[in-house]
Amino acid sequence: MLSIAGGVLLGLLVGSFLNVVIYRLPVMLEREWRRQSLELLATDGTEPEPDSEPLFNLVTPRSRCPSCGTQITAVQNIPVFSWLILGGKCASCQAPISARYPLIEALTGLLSGLIVWQFGIGFGCAAALLFLWALIALTVIDIDHQLLPDSITYPLLWLGLGVSLFFEPDSGLPFPEIHASVAGAMAGYLSLWSVYWLFKLATGKEGMGYGDFKLLAALGAWLGWQMLPLVILLSAVVGATVGVGMIVTLGRDRQIPIPFGPYLAGAGLIALLWGERITNAYLELTGL
After folding, report:
1. CA–CA separation, 48 and 71 (whole Å)
2. What is the pLDDT of residues 84-101, one digit of tens each?
3. pLDDT at 126 (0 to 100)
4. What are phi and psi of 108, to 5 degrees?
5. Pick from 105, 129, 103: which is nearest to 116 by CA?
6. Is the separation of the CB atoms in 39 and 48 below 8 Å?
C-alpha cells in the first residue's frame, strides 16, 4: 500500500509538470516555426523582423496567473490541494482557474498508482510510468491543438525500442522482445500511413495527420506487433462512437476533424495493462 501511495504522490507531482508541458510545448513549437520562417525569408533577401520575444521554455518564466500576471508561489502550486484550498480562483485577482489543471494532476496520480499496483516497484514499473506520462501529455495536446509533437513521439518510440532490449521473456512484464518491438514500430507506422494514402487517393482529403503514424509506431515499439490489432480496433471503435455521438447529440459539423491521438493513447494504455487478458478472453470466446 505504501508503494501505491508513493506512486499516486509521484503521479500528482508529475501531473503538475505535465500541465506545464501541455501548455508551453505548443507555444514553444509555434515560436520555433516562426523563427524558422523568418530565417527562410532572410535567405530570400527579405529583411526579417528582429526576434524580441523573451525566453520561454518548460522552466522559464515562472508560472503566473494568466489574468493578472501575478507569479504563482510554491505553496499555491501544490497539485490538486492548492486549487481546492483557493476555491479554484487566483489568490490575487480572484479570476477563476480552470478545473482542468487539478483533473490532469488527479488523473496522472490515480493512473500512476494503478501502474505501481499492476507492476510493482522495479524496471517494468518505471518504464510503464514513462509510457503513461507521455501518453497523457500527447492526449491533451492533441485535444487542444490537433498536434502530436515529434519532441514527445520520437523519444517515446526510441524508448520503447530501448526497453525491449532489456526485456526478459520470463519476467512477467508485458513488453515485447526486440524483434517484436521493431516489427511493431514498422507495422504501426506503415498501417496508418497506408490508410492515410488510400483515403487521400479515394477522396482527395487527408483523413489523419502524420503524428498519428508516429504515435502508433511508438505503441508498436512498446507493445509489439501482436498487440497492434487490439490497439487499432479499440481506438477505431471508441473514436467512431464518440465522433458519431458528438454529431448526433451536439450537432457537431462532420467536416470538423476529430483528433485520433487520444483514442490511440487510451487503447495503448489498455493494451499495456490488460491486452493479454483481453486477447486470451477473445480467443477463448471464439474458440480459436
Report:
1. 33
2. 898 888 888 888 888 999
3. 94
4. -65, -40
5. 129
6. yes
- Cα–Cα separations (whole angstroms), residue 87 to 68, 69, 81: 17, 19, 10
Enter the C-alpha cell of residue 21: 508541458
- What are the angstrom distances between the C-alpha of 22 and each of 58, 88, 95, 97, 256? 10, 19, 21, 16, 22
Instruction: Detail the DSSP E strand segments found in the chain.
Output: none
Cell of 154: 520520437
DSSP 72: P
d(CA 234, CA 226): 14
| Type of residue numbered 191 | S
Q: What does the alpha-carbon distance between residue 35 and residue 207 come to, in Å, rounded to a whole number?
A: 29
User: CA angle, corner 16, sides to 12 and 22, nearest 5?
Assistant: 130
One-letter amino acid for residue 41 of the chain: L
Contacts of 215 (CB under 8 A, 6+ apart): 138, 148, 153, 156, 261, 264, 265
What's the rounded Cα separation, in Å, for the pair 176 and 286?
Answer: 25
Q: What is the pTM of this model?
A: 0.91
Considering all CA atoms of the chain, what is the largest pairwise distance in Å, rounded to the nearest integer?
70
Mean pLDDT over residues 171-199, rounded? 90
Rounded to 10 deg, the angle between the 178-203 and 150-165 helix axes is 150
Output the CA torsion 231→269→153→133 (10° steps).
170
Measured in residues, the chain has a length of: 288
